[in-house]
Design brief:
The complex is a heterodimer.
Chain A lengths: L12 H5 L15 E7 L5 E7 L1 H4 L4 E6 H4 L4 E2 L13 E2 L6 E2 L5 E7 L2 H9 L2 E6 L6 H5 L14 E7 L5 H7 L2 E9 L11 E7 L4 E6 L4 H12 L6 E4 L15 H13 L3 E4 L2 H6 L7 E9 L5 E11 L12 H9 L9 E8 L14 H19 L3 H8 L6 E2 L5 E2 L4 H14 L2 H10 L3 E13 L3 H6 L9 E7 L5 E5 L8 H13 L6 E4 L17 H28 L4 E4 L2 E4 L6 E3 H10 L13 E6 L6 E14 L4 E12 L6 H21 L30 E5 L16 H18 L13 H11 L1
Parallel strand pairs in A: 1-14, 12-13, 16-17, 22-23, 29-30
Antiparallel strand pairs in A: 1-7, 2-6, 2-8, 3-7, 4-5, 9-17, 10-15, 11-12, 11-14, 15-16, 18-19, 20-28, 21-22, 21-27, 24-25, 25-26, 28-29
Helix pairs in contact in A: 7-8, 11-20, 16-17, 19-20
Chain B lengths: L6 E4 L3 H11 L3 E4 L5 H6 L7 E4 L4 H4 L2 E4 L2 E5 L4 H5 L8 H6 L6 H4 L4 H7 L5 H8 L3 E6 L2 E6 H4 E3 L2 E2 L6 E7 L6 E6 L9 E6 L4 E5 L6 E2 L1 H8 L4 H11 L10 H21 L1
Parallel strand pairs in B: 1-3, 2-3
Antiparallel strand pairs in B: 4-5, 5-10, 6-7, 6-10, 8-9, 11-12, 12-13, 13-14
Helix pairs in contact in B: 10-11, 11-12
The chains are: A alpha+beta, B alpha+beta.
Bound molecules: flavin-adenine dinucleotide.
The site of flavin-adenine dinucleotide has 31 residues of chain B, from strand 2, helix 2, helix 7, helix 8 and strand 10.
């Protein structure tokens, strides 16, 4: 039986569940200093003075540096686009003169212990000349608005108009019906349980700056460290220990990581920075604040004829590296049509800059929003045309593959219709429609909502190049080495921040080499151990990283076969359970350790053309448009008129991520993702007061839902294997988050039907629901 | 999120604790369960120079005594102890209300005395004390005084306690077999947006989250006294209050919650 497809127990669990994991904060080095940052208390203005003298007098404080003291280069993320489409803006490691959000780092303070550092922070005197903050997309785009970056006129960092199908205006003019959706989604924080952090130390023997940090992208952190600090890449080593989540917030390079590296270099002492929860909630990377103005033309049969969208993403104060502020608007613009056959499409996507903490990718990147918007479009069209909401989707779903979309993307095969049908069938057979009728008769508010979507995963260099990124992520590398005891060590450029790579990648290898999981060690997150890699984001690890690993394992298998054939004096050999054996005579077999013994210790016995040792390496990239996972979600909710509470009665998810390497891991990804999607739909929002002071500095105000609020989730699997990844897997990391907000919003709207109120924004607050029912029922 | 420097002291007995705090002056604070104080210290919203730990008095002050219809709780009794105490029907309202306080780990450390001294306007203990007409027994330098709960809460996190005064006991003078507390927050365990408590026999109505202190609502109590319906009682309460607006909800929303929750509380109290 093959390992792929089996819910093998997670190899990382024994250490993590017994408290034997090692996270950044567990690292303690001799003479280590603790760092924290003096952060701006105003949202927008100029720093007129930073007085560190009081700080340096605080017992325990060893040093404190401003931008001028550290003198490191800025972090600048760019797109290969003309200035009319993209304005590059530098993000200084420490603010130089301008500050652009509350929480922006201005100086770094270093002390002997984490307590003295904070005493030191209190003693810093910063003077400002405050300017008018720009706090919303409307304020940013208003004529004459103050500029967040002098170079970015109209506070616009990205402005692209795409696709504009010829004749689209005529289609709208002639359409049977035009449906409008205006939607806003709140600013969110990905909230990894483990906040950001780094320990930097100079190793004089290796002549290397070692930065141990919890990042999803170790090589990109190395590159930026080298650039900003003026070091050769070989003089920087980034190592990632266990990670407690990232969700995208850690797939960009943080300025604090660079500052910590600079301080360690300068002081020649190890420096640790652990972001505290207040900073994590207010001054880290945020995401998801977007506004959509969409209209869609329909014929009388409910078929969509054209889609016209204006998307504005509030990206906060800076472009993140390497993705830039284009991450959200470019994703939204390219993917909006989603799973539907949209014949004509036009979109304008913009990124505006505001005086709020900057944005980074967050699980799903714009797709939770575009799916929500498209699903609202179809729900509204169904209402206006008097059609069933599931039926109207059926009429518009892509069913023939490969499908060349109007958005210049080719969709590989998926189960769009099948997943929706199964999802609806589950809800129907459980009697929820009857229960809804009964509830309505009793004056209760019960609603059923669906979402239907696909999710591009395995973005290779082809897809990222289309986006015109200057740094084009895409390929990944893998290396595999068999040791003398016949086991293997695999090195990958991807980086697990909790997704079980040590298990799933090992399953891929186990099948190709006929090894048990226990004989396979997966190594990740060390820039000295693998040439390059793009880490983990965009559901790329199983698809791209996994394929590179599979190829390396296959190459090693070939070497074993060739060596075995030579030693067994036949051409007809196979790998079986840690042996190479003759096909015609299973009794004549060599154990891997025998082969390794020869490859390493008796190279004199190798064939003349064979190299000693047993290693192989491989790469994998996707040159086309990637591969699309898909799913349908169904939610049943009841609204409580007296409190506005949204109670889940049922949540089902039918997902198709191709071959599920480890179904249990896939389900874990789905559940966690759905929880984050529900969080965005109903609970979480980063808000600011009129001065730009964030109003959620703790979990009292930033309402991450707990297990109490998240319902049981039933997951069913369909399997449409990917034709071009080695294991047939598609990405599974983000789908849950993508599908949940739309399903929840639709279910709430379905329940609100008797009131006539329709909601298009998230998060949906209990107050909003209570008001809708109270005023209209 | 690390506290400012402080000196730690451990009290051996009540008298010692009070005299220590008096001696150390205004910059000193008692610490009981630490579930409110430590968070405030970590945010540096509170920065006592001295902490006097009451943990050593647990043997003396963590008790639940039912003296024939008068219930006495030692100040260091934890929420969790009350939650699991064999309280009869007369005080079941206290036990049942404990489930609303935060989460289990918080309840195993947080104390009755700490809650009352902290004086959060939606805290269950503050509401319950007012609802049941409790007396808070306080030890100061001049000796012991008894403060009626209704006179304890002055404003946001502000009580009638002198800095060195220590709560040693709370006395619930009468059983309340037909009383209940209920509340609403978006997440289980959060401080309530609105909390409503009622004692049908005493004809008392107390609300949390609608004023700077736990609020008795005479207008709603009058409805109960004249035998009005629960809905009328709740409507009277909603009309009488002038609730604040914040990120958790506006004034109208809090009024709507008051209507809903007070009816629920009345029905629950009735069912007992
Ligand atoms: C996540 C979280 C959720 C919570 N949710 C709730 C909730 O829903 N409802 C709720 O009521 N509470 C909630 N709490 C607070 C919790 O109930 C606290 O335990 C309680 O408010 C304070 O009790 P304590 O013993 O921890 O007091 P401490 O934190 O030790 O002290 C609080 C204050 O009281 C003073 N003090 C303590 N004991 C005495 C005394 N005997 N005499 C005089 N002064 C004293 C201290 O000096 C300090 O000023 C929550 C706490 C957390 C962390």
């Amino acid at each position: 039986m093959s390992w792929v497809g089996r819910s093998a127990a997670r190899r990382e669990d024994p250490r993590l569940l017994t408290g034997n994991g090692r996270f950044v904060d567990d690292i303690r080095l001799p003479r280590m200093l603790h760092a924290q940052f003096v952060r701006s208390t105003i949202a927008h203005g100029t720093v007129t003075g930073v007085d560190l003298s009081g700080t340096l007098a605080v017992p325990g404080v060893v040093a404190a540096f401003t931008a001028g003291d550290l003198a490191v280069d800025d972090i600048t993320a760019v797109l290969d686009r003309p200035l009319s489409e993209f304005v590059p803006t530098a993000m200084p490691v420490l603010a130089r003169d301008r500050v652009r959000f509350v929480g922006e780092p201005i100086a770094i303070v270093l002390a002997e212990d984490p307590y003295s550092v904070e005493d030191g922070l209190e003693a810093v005197r910063v003077t400002y000349e405050a300017g008018m903050p720009v706090l919303s997309e409307e304020q940013a785009l208003a004529p004459g608005a103050p500029l967040v970056h002098a170079a970015a006129a109209g506070n616009t960092l990205v402005d692209v108009s795409m696709f504009a199908t010829e004749g689209i205006d005529d289609i709208f003019a002639a359409a049977h019906r035009v449906v409008y959706v205006r939607s806003r989604t709140g600013r969110q924080n990905a909230v990894p349980l483990e906040t950001r952090g780094a320990v930097a130390s100079w190793d004089p023997r290796a002549e290397q700056l070692l930065v141990q940090t919890c990042t999803q992208v170790p090589h990109q952190v190395r590159t930026v460290l080298a650039e900003c600090l003026g070091l050769g890449e070989r003089a920087v080593r980034v190592v990632v220990p266990d990670m407690g989540g990232g969700f995208g917030q850690k797939c960009v390079v943080g300025r604090e990581e660079i500052a910590v590296g600079a301080a360690a270099l300068r002081l020649r002492r190890p420096v640790k920075w652990i972001e505290d929860r207040r900073d994590a909630l207010t001054a880290s990377f945020l995401a998801r604040e977007q506004r959509y103005d969409v209209r869609a033309a329909f014929d009388a049969g409910g078929r969509i004829l054209a889609l016209d969208a204006d998307v504005v993403c509030d990206m906060g104060a800076y472009s993140c590296y390497p993705f830039t502020a284009g991450i959200e608007p470019l994703m939204a613009s390219a993917e909006l049509p989603g799973v539907y056959r949209v014949p004509a499409y036009r979109v304008r996507g913009r990124a505006v800059t505001t005086n709020k903490a900057p944005s980074a990718p967050y699980r799903g990147v714009s797709r939770p929003q575009i799916v929500m918007v498209m699903e609202r479009v179809f729900e509204r069209a169904a209402r206006e045309l008097g059609l069933d909401p599931v039926e109207i989707r059926r009429r518009n779903l892509i069913t023939e593959f490969p499908y060349a979309g109007i958005n210049d993307v080719t969709y590989d095969p998926g189960s769009y219709l099948e997943s929706l049908n199964l999802c609806e069938q589950m809800i129907r057979e459980e009697g929820w429609y009857e229960r809804q009728e009964q509830a309505a008769a009793e004056g209760r508010f019960l609603g059923i909502g669906y979402s239907c979507f696909s999710e591009r995963t395995g973005y290779g260099s082809g897809a990222f190049a289309k986006r015109k990124m200057a740094v084009v992520p895409g390929f990944d590398l893998a290396e595999i080495t068999m040791d003398l005891t016949g086991g293997v060590t695999v090195t990958t450029g991807t980086m697990s921040h909790g997704q079980s790579h040590e298990t799933t990648l090992a399953q891929i290898v186990a099948d190709r080499l006929g090894l048990d999981l226990a004989q396979i060690k997966i190594h990740q997150g060390d820039t000295d151990r693998i040439t390059y890699g793009f880490g983990t984001f965009a559901s790329r690890s199983a698809t791209i990283g996994g394929s590179a690993v599979a190829r390396a394992a296959t190459k090693l298998a070939d070497r074993l076969l060739r060596l075995g054939a030579y030693l067994l004096e036949t051409d007809d050999v196979e790998l079986h359970d840690g042996h190479v054996r003759r096909r015609d005579d299973h009794g004549r077999a060599l154990r891997y350790r025998d082969l390794a013994g020869i490859a390493y210790l008796k190279a004199n016995l190798l064939p003349k053309d064979a190299e000693p040792g047993l290693t192989a390496s491989a790469s994998f990239d996707v040159h086309g448009d990637g591969t699309f996972s898909n799913a349908a979600h169904g939610a049943v909710v009841e609204l409580h008129p007296g409190t506005g509470r949204v109670e889940f009665l049922r949540y089902v998810c039918v997902e198709d991520c191709g071959v599920a390497i480890n179904p249990q891991v896939v389900e874990g990804q789905c559940r966690g993702g759905i929880a984050q999607g529900i969080a965005g739909a109903l609970f979480e929002e980063v808000t600011y007061d009129a001065q730009g002071e964030p109003s959620c500095a703790s979990f009292i105000d930033y309402k991450v839902p707990t297990a109490n609020e998240i319902p049981d989730i039933e997951i069913r699997h369909l399997e449409t294997p990917c034709a071009f990844t080695e294991s047939g897997a598609k990405g599974a990391g983000e789908g849950g988050t993508i599908g949940a907000p739309a399903a929840v919003l639709n279910a709430v709207n379905d329940a609100l039907r008797p009131t006539g109120v329709e909601l298009d924004d998230t998060p949906i607050r209990p107050e909003t629901v209570q008001r809708a029912i109270g005023a209209n029922a | 999120m690390k506290p400012a420097p402080f000196t730690y002291h451990r009290a051996r007995d009540v008298a010692g604790a009070v005299s220590l705090l008096t001696e150390l002056g205004e910059d000193a604070k008692y610490i009981a369960g630490g579930q409110s104080l430590v968070a405030m210290m970590n945010f540096r919203l509170a920065r006592p120079a001295h902490l006097v730990d009451l943990g050593g008095l647990r043997g003396e002050l963590a008790y639940i005594r039912d003296d024939g219809g008068v219930l006495r709780l030692g100040a260091l009794t934890t929420h969790h102890q009350v939650e699991n105490a064999p309280l009869g029907p007369g005080f079941a309202v206290l036990r049942d209300a404990m489930g609303w306080i935060g989460h289990l780990p918080i309840r195993t450390r947080g104390t009755v005395g700490g809650s009352l001294a902290h004086g959060e306007a939606t805290a269950e203990w503050c509401l319950l004390a007012v609802l049941l007409g409790a007396e808070v027994v306080v030890q100061g330098t001049a000796g012991v005084r008894r403060v009626p709960a209704e006179e304890l809460f002055l404003s946001f996190f502000t009580t009638a306690l002198e800095p060195e005064e220590m709560i040693v006991e709370v006395v619930f003078p009468r059983p309340a077999p037909h009383a209940a507390l209920t509340e609403f927050a978006q997440r289980r365990g959060d401080y309530a947006i609105v909390a409503a408590a009622v004692d049908l026999e005493a004809e008392r109505v107390v609300l949390g989250g609608v004023a700077p202190v736990p609020l008795r609502v005479p207008e709603a109590e009058a409805v109960l006294a004249r035998g009005g319906t629960f809905a009328e009682c709740a409507a009277a309460a909603a009309a009488a209050i002038d609730p604040p607006a914040d990120g958790s909800g506006g004034a109208d929303y809090r009024r709507a919650l008051t209507r809903t929750l007070l009816v629920r509380a009345c029905e629950a109290a009735m069912r007992r």
